[in-house]
Design a protein that fits this description.
The structure is a single chain. By secondary structure, the protein is an alpha+beta fold. It has a single domain, classed as NADH Oxidase. It contains five helices and five strands, in the order H-H-E-H-E-H-E-E-H-E. Strands 1, 2, 3, 4 and 5 form a five-stranded antiparallel β-sheet that branches. Helix 1 crosses helix 4 and helix 2 crosses helix 4.
């Protein structure tokens, strides 16, 4: 799949088959995530791969929009590691770029995923920090349920001419 095709056809997938996701696919997806640009090339991310069914099933109790994780065979917690920042505060942008790469890689490999936000919601940050025993300098940004899609989502252009400005607003 070409990059433009992946960008134009990727959509949030919230229904998954019960087929497992191989360790090789997870590694390939994480490798793509870690190729994202970052401020000063510091790559201030940490990833927690979750395939424990008990943990996955517990997550909707700490995040109101994670009910689909009960169907997903795996999820990836994306965190910013402030101890790895060269330019403080850019971890959110850096990790967001990593999440987008992760989502596009999953789609290109025939998997489905959905970005569920954690940061900046302090209650979610605290709950994920506690659930995953994160050190103080590691902040959870997003949780990505991942699996083989059990739904088809129509892809259509979202280009909006009224959102494009030339030279000034």
């Amino acid at each position: 799949m070409h990059a433009i095709e992946a960008i134009k056809t990727r959509r949030s997938i919230r229904k998954y088959t019960d087929a497992p996701v191989s360790e090789e696919l997870i590694r390939e997806i994480l490798e793509a995530a870690m190729l994202a640009p970052s401020a000063g090339n510091q790559q201030p991310w940490q990833f927690v791969v979750v395939d424990d069914r008990e943990i996955l099933d517990s997550l909707p109790s700490i995040h109101p929009y994670l009910s689909m994780v009960r169907q997903a065979p795996v999820g990836i917690l994306v965190c910013g590691d402030q101890s790895k920042e060269k330019y403080p505060g850019y971890w959110v942008q850096d990790c967001s770029a990593a999440v987008q790469n992760l989502l596009l890689a999953a789609h290109a490999l025939g998997l489905g995923a959905v970005w569920t936000g954690i940061h900046p919601m302090e209650d979610r940050v605290a709950a994920f920090r506690e659930r995953f025993n994160l050190p103080d300098e590691v902040i959870p940004l997003a949780f990505i349920p991942l699996g083989h899609p059990a739904q088809e989502v129509k892809s259509e252009s979202r280009y909006r001419e009224d959102r494009v400005h030339s030279n000034t607003y």
